[in-house]
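Allow me, if you will, to draw on your knowledge of protein folds for a short while. The matter concerns a single protein, recorded as an amino acid sequence and a row of backbone structure tokens. Could you please explain, in whatever detail you think fit, how the structure tokens follow from the sequence? I remain grateful for any guidance, and I place the record below:

…
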Amino acid sequence: MNRPRVSVTMPCYNCAGTVTEALDSLLAQTMDEFEIVAVDDGSDDETPHILGEYARRFGRVRWERMEHGGVVAAANRAIAQSRGEYVARMDADDIALPERLAAQAALLDSSPDVGLAGCLVRFGGSRTRCAGYARYVDWTNTVLDHESISLNRFVEFPVPNPSIMVRRECLEEFGPYREGDFPEDYELLLRWLEKGVRMAKVPRELLVWNDPPERLSRNHPKYDMESFYRVKARYLARWLERNNPHHPVVHVLGAGRTTRKRADMLLEHGIRFAAYHDLDPRKIGHVVNGVPVLHRDEIPEPDRCFCLSYVASVGARDDIADFLGKHGHEPGRNWLAVA
């Protein structure tokens, strides 16, 4: 096979129950010029046997086995072994819809300024048992162009990792996934955005994002909420240094214990709080660690402050955006949603 246009990289670990369906979905793609590079991360189930059988039967499938080193090591090994102009990520428990590779490659072909292409994803779990995760997936499907992705980068991870396709030169210039006590996919997105990489999505469902109970994001401590907010705080502080005209001072919307715990991570990076703002009369009027808790109506005029909204309850983000918008605050200029 000549050099493929697209390499699909797939880290695999004990995924014998799902990898067959994932591979079959890739082999059913409408695009022809692609390869699949699977790296087995020291599985102790039938995963290596399955990968070996697919490689024997299908020339576009390549695989290798490594000692168990974790998903970052396996993902980066697959990237290092790939040959395509574009490099896609695929998890071994997800399903690529037939036009995924063709549509994302077409987006990158037609938009030379875009370095990372995503797509809409279909939630593959139980919307009853996993309602929060389903809402998150629905939210990601509203964040489509570069401006929206950039503006919402500190709310949540706006481009699901298994849905991405990137230019090889971006990997070479800005680096692949990094090891650390943080979610490596979110850190890569924040790092690339900080470096100026433009991102966009194909506005069509091209991936079924399954949510099995053994998914790493549900079980590994580096994917817990504290780790997520810790890496967010590091990149957010640097963003504020470049974009907040009142740096290092911000006003924080929300005064609850959870809000304060997450916002306090910014203090380690030199950010200072002028005030917390809330609607709860039980909180208003108090002073927390020297910071007053004021009513939301006491937020200064747009040219006198920069606000960070840490309120994340259902419907609250829209309410705050509406409130601030009516008072002349523009997202990205006078305030940001960061939860």
Q: What stands out?
A: The chain has two domains: 6-223, 243-337. The two ends are 46 Å apart (CA to CA). The chain has twelve helices and 14 strands. The chain has a mean pLDDT of 95.
